[in-house]
Each structure stands twice: as C-alpha cells, then as structure tokens.
Write a structure and sequence with these properties.
Layout (H helix, E strand, L loop, with lengths): L27 E6 L6 H11 L2 E6 L10 E4 L19 H10 L8 E4 L1 H8 L6 E3 L7 E9 L15 E8 L3 E3 L2 H9 L3 E5 L11 E5 L5 E4 L30 H12 L1
Parallel strand pairs: 1-2, 1-3, 3-4, 4-11
Antiparallel strand pairs: 5-8, 6-7, 6-9, 9-10, 10-11
Helix pairs in contact: 1-5
Length: 263
C-alpha cells in the first residue's frame, strides 16, 4: 500500500506560534501512521501549532520523504498483538527510521510517544521494554512529570528539574530493564522524564521517558500532543493556574526539536 494525502480535520482555528513563512515552517516533521495508530492526527496538529510542517508517513512505505525528524505516535499498532509495538518494529519504514536515527552527527531526531516508545524499544533504538501496568488496568489521567534532561533534541525548551503536566493513557506502560541498564541510563543522564508524586504504572525508578546516547532519539509514555493547545489540554499545569482544559505544558517538546533543527 502506498501513502495517500489525507486532509487532517482541525478543531477551531489553528494558531501556530510563528508565521507560515517563518524559519520553523521549513522544518518537516514526519508522523508515522500504523494500522491502529490513534494519535497521529494529534501529533501532526501539535507540530503545526509549534510552527513546523507536518508530513504524513505510511508505515508500509520505504521513503522518509526527506523529513527532518520523525514522530512515532501513540495508539495500538496492529492491535498490540504479540507485544505492544513488536509487529510494527518490522514495518518497512521502521528500517529506514532505524538507519537514519543511528547515522552519526546528522542522525535523524525521533520521538516515540506511548505506543511509539514501545516500538522504539522493540526496534532496539532504546533499551529496556514495556510491559503491562503493575495494577493490570488501563490508565488515563493527567500526570505530573519532572524533566530530568533538557539537553536532548526534544527537551531544549525546558530546564532540568522543571515539572510539567502531561496526559497519560496506557495499559502496557510499565518500563522495565535490568539494574545494569538502569544504572547506565541514570549515570549517563539518559533518563529524560520521571513521574512525580506517584508512580502510575510501576515503571522502574519512576522512569517516564528515556533517550539514546546521542539524545536524538527519545521515548516517553505520556502524551505531550494532548497538552499543546488551550481549551484542549489538561485542567492543570505545573507552571501555574490555568483555565478549564488550559494546560499546554507539552508544547515545548515540539518547539524544542524545531528550534534545534534551525540552529
């Protein structure tokens, strides 16, 4: 199957942070759709709100369409049969992404959100694995996180120690790894996000997101694309009081990679 152009329906007027002819608009961020992806449209909207250009990518293609970065969105790819993300890991486009993401100094920035994080671990772009939540139930809530590493391609708009509120929704969200791997992640500063106040799914050391050594590949379980637009975000923010559905703490993830790419 080849990719087709699909017009993304928008809720309300889109208000990007920069003008359509600004430098960020030239940055092309690809968003991959798998069978069962649920949040690809949301991720594309987040890219546009941040000022970039969103490019739809189909998992069965072999062409990255010269994008500057890639987002692997949330959902239930292939119904989460076998293991969450295990089948998607073999998609033709994932082979292209894996090669580009490990390409040295010019390696492709890649963000995996929820199911995308699961896919990145299955593809061995990130260590560890995701298993069912400790309490064995699906979880949906607004979650407070702490940014532990602000030096990745996707977190440069935050500062280390900053807290944010991001929606969390998963059933296979428990991050696990052996102690040696966990110690390496901690020692190398590759824990990017950590759950605050309460560990919602039993993830080892309350880890909510990690990166590869170079910092261009990041996976996180919460959904920043659901906290980018006032009126459609969480009811709270770690940055102060907000109105109903007014939290936008997740937008910085998308502006971070855009500004990193434009230098």
């Amino acid at each position: 199957m080849t990719s087709t152009s699909i017009e993304t329906p928008l809720i309300g007027d889109l208000q990007p942070m920069t003008g359509d002819d600004g430098p960020l608009a030239a940055v092309r961020i690809g968003v991959v759709t798998f069978p069962g992806s649920l949040d690809d449209r949301d991720a594309m909207r987040a890219v546009r709100l941040a000022g970039g250009s969103a490019v739809q990518l189909w998992h069965g293609d072999h062409d990255l369409q010269e994008v500057d970065a890639v987002i692997i969105p949330g959902g239930f790819s292939y119904g989460d049969y076998l293991r969450a993300g295990a089948i998607s890991r073999f998609a033709p486009l994932m082979e292209q992404i894996t090669q580009a993401a490990t390409g040295g100094a010019d390696a492709l920035p890649v963000l995996g959100i929820c199911n995308g994080f699961q896919i990145l671990t299955e593809a061995h772009l990130l260590p560890g694995a995701m298993i069912k939540n400790e309490h064995l139930h699906f979880l949906c809530r607004d979650q407070r996180l702490r940014v532990e590493n602000a030096d990745t391609h996707w977190t440069g708009e935050y500062w280390a120690g900053e807290e944010v509120v991001i929606p969390l929704k998963n059933q296979d969200g428990q991050f696990v790894a052996d102690n040696r791997t966990l110690d390496e992640l901690e020692g190398e500063g590759r824990v990017v996000f950590r759950y605050v106040d309460e560990n919602p799914n039993g993830s080892r050391r309350s880890i909510a997101g990690i990166s590869n050594t170079a910092g261009n590949v990041v996976g996180l379980m919460p959904h920043p694309e659901h906290a980018v637009e006032a009126g459609f975000g969480p009811d709270s923010s770690a940055r102060g009081e907000v109105g109903l559905r007014g939290g936008t703490d997740g937008l910085g993830i998308f502006t971070s990679v855009l500004r990193k790419l434009v230098g």
